[in-house]
Amino acid sequence: MSDSFAVPTETLAPAYTGRLGTDAVPALRLPKSETDPEAAYRFIHDELMLDGSSRLNLATFVTTWMDPQADRLMAETFDKNMIDKDEYPQTAEIETRCVNMVAALFNADGLDESDPSSATGVSTVGSSEAVMLAGLALKWRWRAAREAAGKDNTRPNLILGSNVQVVWEKFCRYFDVEPKYLPMAKGRYVITPEQVREAVDENTIGVVAILGTTFTGELEPVAEISDVLDEIAAQGGPDVPLHVDAASGGFVVPFLHPELKWDFRLPRVVSINVSGHKYGMTYPGIGFVVWRSKEYLPEDLVFRVNYLGGDMPTFTLNFSRPGNQVVGQYYNFIRLGVAGYTQIMESLRDTALMISSELSAMQDMHVITDGTAIPVLSFEVVGDPGYTVFDISHELRARGFQVPAYTMPADAEDVAVLRIVLREGFSRDMAYKLVLAMKDVVARLKSGAGHTASGFAH
Is the dihedral of CA 339, 343, 346, 348 positive or negative? Predict the structure, then answer.
């Protein structure tokens, strides 16, 4: 045999054979040997195929699609550390621009377009960190006021609805604040001004109102709650600040309902948090917290470091984090502007209303929220049709759609609902397919051909 036909001493393994195809890869310990990068990629890539499709995940508020240009920008800036502002001054400048844009969108006090320091706020790792920072500012200001008045400052409490996201529970537990939960009721899934009036006392560090609740997407009555707090203070009661958790609605309401006063146009509102990775339409890992003005962020909470090359103030719970999320957010801001955000939010709302209309026409379905406030709709099964919202969720998952079913918060735990979150990347065509899937699921469950969430046929 000539040399040109000699069997090589090393051969490339066929695509799905070799070590990855025959030997188990250690899952809980480092492997003893190196792995070819393509083989390692293939192993992890294939395992991730077992996840559901993020684009069909109608449970999450978090962004699952961005422009390809944003993808490129974010890939180019994974390696930039946001905390190293001296080494990456332009990334730091972009963060400052974003904070100013958010503060202006929410009508903060004293903003100057030529002065980047006129806005008080910071980018965060989602709204969870933003909530912690806002809560700390509330606690510190309350404690300082109590000390100045010579009063006890060891029993702070925070007023919030039982419908809050779990991060508020974490804040209260981690930072030793008593949560005063205001209960829900069947047919009412937001807090009321009268509930707030009855709960406020001299130890209250603040009241939290939600702009777009996790359970139903509803807007809590921020202006009415503000009015009640103004009345309490005017009558000689405690002067309690208001924080707005706008994680879900902060990048929706200014564009769909610009006339609604919920932000710093209400003097009682001192701070607002918002998730850039929700309706800010940036991939997971970006949020913001902004304050009305500098006086509402206690200086004691701001640290200064000089060991990264320059003297910089920092007010975050995290330290190192990639700069690509804020770059992605800035891309969206300059790419879309007010007109672009408005168009997208109107389109998502219209899609939500289409789905709601179809659901309302179905027997045994009751729509709780139709997507008018923000592009989130919730609905329940009424009567006793022989199936539950959990059965519907189970059957939809088999068709690729992830639609969560859950019970409502205290004191409405006997109400179980389904929720659909409409996001950029979920087209009107896919929405029609979801409606058809819903109708098919319900028909099958009614006929006994479907399966309950526990796996038994009717």
Answer: negative
